Amino acid sequence: MMVTNAVLGGIADTVAQTITSIRERALRKGYSPNPKDDPIAIEIHELDRKNPFNERELIPDSKSLPPPFDFERLTRFMAYGFCMAPVQFKWFRFLEKSFPISKTNAFGQAMKRVAFDQLIFAPFGLATFFTVMTVAEGGGRRAVTSKLRDMYVPTLKANYVLWPAVQVVNFRLMPVQFQLPFVSTVGIAWTAYLSLTNAAEDAQNDRIPDLPEVRLD
């Protein structure tokens, strides 16, 4: 499961980097996709609203080339998925034992699992993701605080749009040994979203230099 989680995390980040490459290549050509005409833009329009790139900020000598693939970023996502798999699996085991599903009370117990998962583990998981990724990228306490302030609440709202429905199916129909692979498979799109969100925030912060603190005594 750890290896599977790592591979799926790598696939998700590859998808995210591919989307970014396509959009940056379009910008280098002087064309900004219209969300009404571009199927990719339709899917990620809302996720990409904070895209910090524009023509003036691209490297002039590389206008005809796609951005380089970030293998360090890929490694971070795979390592995160690898390390989080045991935590997620134990959490699913805990939910299974705490809310056993029977033929007479299947739906009610499944909904209790979903409620606990979304109210307890989802907020914890997102905070862990942004914190770990920021630290792995070399950020300190200030960078972590900034990332959580800017990205945590919007991402948590997006989580509540997708995952309650997914977890109803997961807890109601999937045996516990298949719950993590099922979540990880569905999570390819979600992890790609997280990758885009995390990268967009990093790029936006990179283009805004830290200003010296001014004290008025």
TrEMBL record:
<protein>
    <submittedName>
        <fullName>Uncharacterized protein</fullName>
    </submittedName>
</protein>
<dbReference type="GO" id="GO:0005739">
    <property type="term" value="C:mitochondrion"/>
</dbReference>
<dbReference type="GO" id="GO:0016020">
    <property type="term" value="C:membrane"/>
</dbReference>
<dbReference type="Pfam" id="PF04117">
    <property type="entry name" value="Mpv17_PMP22"/>
</dbReference>
<comment type="similarity">
    <text>Belongs to the peroxisomal membrane protein PXMP2/4 family.</text>
</comment>
<dbReference type="InterPro" id="IPR007248">
    <property type="entry name" value="Mpv17_PMP22"/>
</dbReference>
<keyword id="KW-0472">Membrane</keyword>
<keyword id="KW-0812">Transmembrane</keyword>
<keyword id="KW-1133">Transmembrane helix</keyword>
